[in-house]
Amino acid sequence: MALNIFNTLSHTKEEFKPISNDKVGLYTCGPTVYNYPHIGNYRAYIFGDILKRYLVYRGYKVKHIMNITDIDDKTIRDSQAQGKKLSELTEFYTKEFYKDRDALNIVPAEKYTKATDFINEMVKIIEILLEKGFAYKTEDGSVYFNIHKDLDYGKLSHFKISDLKENARGRMTKDEYDKDSAEDFALWKAWDESDGDVFWQTQLGKGRPGWHIECSAMSMHELGETFDLHTGGVDNIFPHHENEIAQSECATGKTFSKYFMHNEHLMVDGIKMAKSSGNFYTLRDLIEKDIEPLAFRLWIYTAHYRTKTNFTLDAVNGSQVALKRLYEAFKAIMNSDIGVIDESYKERLIEYMDDDLDTPKALALMWELVHNPEIEPENKKATMLDFDRIFGFGLENLKEEIIPKEVQLLSLEREQARKDKDWSKSDELRDKIKSLGYEVKDSDTGYKISKI
Fold first, then answer.
1. Which pTM value belongs to this model?
2. Beta strands across the sheet bearing 61-68
């Protein structure tokens, strides 16, 4: 069996063959730290996480780099609006991002690279592009990449410059724009009054980098001029990743990233979730609605990463119930010794995940495992823990709940009332137990106490 992934570059599913047999260089587009990321952003980060987890599961040594965009149009705009220094704003939201990352049980990257730490590397790439004739300087001192000089421009987003609208010629100073607005993009933005005190004095002059050059500089500095995998949301395909490829490959003459993988949008009422649309939820919004972050993680797995999925609170609440049941199933066997991993289940898990990370099938397999009475508890425990190396639900960190003595005594009293067929007293004791934050579930083999 071999891992097959959908490569946006070829627009086909391909067998994953890393540059080095057992090592993988992975670059994930990270947050722009001007506000809290919304859960649409976290779909991308969870996707990157399960990809990384699965690569490790399959035996690869993964060097994972994620950028922190702490200088761009948005960070400057919002820091000025709030009367704060750029670093004050970005450091606060960087720390908040790390809190969310940990709450979602996302494995930390080997390194988080802040754009402001790589200005020199950006300048070097821009100077090479100027020297090779792929970039040009304007009268105000800004530097632009000439997309018409790059014969391969558009190979990721699969359009040709000749197909663009007639008015799609000129220069684009904004960091983000639509495909139909494809124009020469800024590599270096000369300082003007709107930038305030945000600038660097370099060989290129007084100014700041454009957004796209940041990721090229950071990824190539950490992973080499050619690396294995680049991930992000589909909204990054154009212009960001297209421009990354153009400037990187024109500077080095080498392939930038061998594979690109992109997750689809998270929708709300059929519309893409975005801060600009005002239809977004943050992780804090979910927590305030008593939704566990890992319930959101589980919900993400119910749809394939390349499928648009519509967010509703009802759906995520359903995943919260499912997560609770999964935890209960594991707690029921957690005192068992750890046995051996069931190879038939492991083989099927690998089969599904090898097929472009088919998490819906893999998740269904987990439930099949949970409900299979023929597997011994110790072997089921070992297999569930093995599955969780990929899923990241934190099963290994679960602890058996200590039921308060008062609740235990009330439960025993209720059980006796049931035996005596004193249903009124039984109901009264059940309500008392519930008032203490616990519930009793009856079955043919007895009763079980759990926290509400």
1. 0.87
2. 111-114, 61-68, 23-28, 227-233, 257-263
Inter-helix orientation angle 211-223/242-252, to 10°: 60
- With beta carbons less than 8 A apart as the criterion, state whether 122 and 214 touch: yes
Beta-carbon-side half-sphere exposure of residue 347 (alpha carbons within 13 Å) = 4
For 105-133, the DSSP string reads: TPPPPSEEEEGGG-HHHHHHHHHHHHHHT
Preceding peptide of 239 cis, ω within 30° = yes
* Rounded-to-5 percentages of helix, strand, coil across the chain: 45, 20, 35
- Per-block average pLDDT, block size 10, for the chain (452 residues)? 95 97 96 95 97 98 98 96 97 97 98 98 98 97 95 90 58 73 90 95 97 98 98 96 98 98 90 74 94 97 97 95 95 92 98 98 98 96 98 91 82 88 91 90 74 77
Which of these, 436, 45, 6, 39, lies nearest to 272 by C-alpha position? 39
The contacts found for 174-180 with CB under 8 angstroms, 24 or more apart, are 174/73, 175/72, 175/73, 175/74, 175/210, 175/211, 175/212, 176/73, 176/211, 176/239, 176/240, 177/239, 179/238, 179/239
